Amino acid sequence: MNYLHLNGLHHSRQPLAASLPPTNIHPVSAFTLKYVPHPFPTRRAKNPFGELSIIDRIKARAPTSSAVRLGIGDDCAILKPPPGHELLVTTDFCLEERHFRRAWHTPASIGHRTLARGLSDLAAMGAKPLAAFLSLAMPPDVARNPRFLDGLLDGLLALAAAHSVPLAGGDTAQAPADQILADIVLLGSAPTGRALRRSTARPGDLLYVTGALGGAAAELTALSANPRKFRTTNAADNHPHLFPQPRLAVGQALLRRLLATACIDLSDGLSTDLAHLCTASHVAAELDLAQLPLHPLAAALDDRAQINALLHGGEDYELLFTASPSTKIPRSIAGVPITQIGRILKSRVNKPQMSILSDSYRYELQPHGWEHFA
Ligand code: ADP
Ligand code: MG
User: Fold this and answer.
1) Torsion over CA of 273, 274, 277 and 278, rounded to 10 degrees?
2) What pTM value is reported for the model?
3) Residue whose CA lies nearest to ligand 1 atom number 11
4) What is the predicted pLDDT for the residue at 2?
5) How confident is the model at residue 167 (pLDDT cuts 50, 70, 90)?
6) Contact present, 104 and 196 (Cβ < 8 Å)
7) For residue 52, which atom of ligand 1 is closest to its CA?
8) Is the CB of 56 under 6 A from ligand 1?
9) Which of 159, 236, 292, 345 is the most exposed place for a label (fewest CB within 10 A)?
């Protein structure tokens, strides 16, 4: 379905047959009566800028692992999940102008962010990454210039190496318009029946967050004001928007050490993701404003912008999790600070799903993070 959509052949969710012009011919034979040539070449001879050389370029650099029995090069990859584990699958689009801008994000940042989004979903469920699949559509001028692909791979593969994630396949196509599309699919594994979920929080549980909040929103504000200042940044420095660090080790420790009752990653912002957790778990929650850990980059913002960054800033890719009050949660896990920020309550009719406590006042909290199609 995605492939049809990307080629501009099909823009609705209707099945393809339903979008054909009305005809009294039986739909099965409609295709045999009129041959419609495919508008784009599907397979090209090997040329220096073609699909095959792009795949070769990716394959030459792709890390492998023993879990990948067969990687890039055949029709399918073959994976071997560890015994006693089940598979977890997540997929995320990175679309130019929606998730990144070429004027703001370097190719390395685009590559890093593409993989980080998928890894963060695995982290939220306590999974170990098994393999990544990267589907790329590039406009012709971008595909012709190897600097973009090489830069994207620099960012993506550095993060993959840091978490030992093999790149086991993907797809490559010419973009139908002047926009880059990158889609990442990640497979992970977790001991059967043990993956963390967002639907299992219980009233009385305490609410915790990893790391700090609002850093990505603060960096995005600074980036939009002066993109040139950020052209030379790299993942080694602290760049929560350009190079977010997915919390895989924390998620795996929460699962392994039976610490969390529920978990979600903060991709859309605390207020939105907490609402997702509450809805899925049929519970309510309250936050202590003074306990929310403010990222140092957000400290420079004025008070109102700080609160916005804390509560609604998206893309921090921290983990929000719940734990029973009888479980001792360490101050840090895998070097990442952990902060208690509130508690889970019973859901009640006529009471807000989320509230926030500040100076002994209680405010209703609405989800105002990043929402597509809002
Ligand atoms: P097919 O036409 O059989 O789907 P492709 O020619 O698209 O195969 O891909 C050939 C091999 O290259 C496959 O193993 C596929 O997974 C891999 N591949 C294609 N594009 C990418 C990419 N962008 N990143 C990683 N692997 C890729
Ligand atoms: Mg094939």
Assistant:
1) -140
2) 0.86
3) 73
4) 31
5) very high
6) no
7) 6
8) no
9) 236
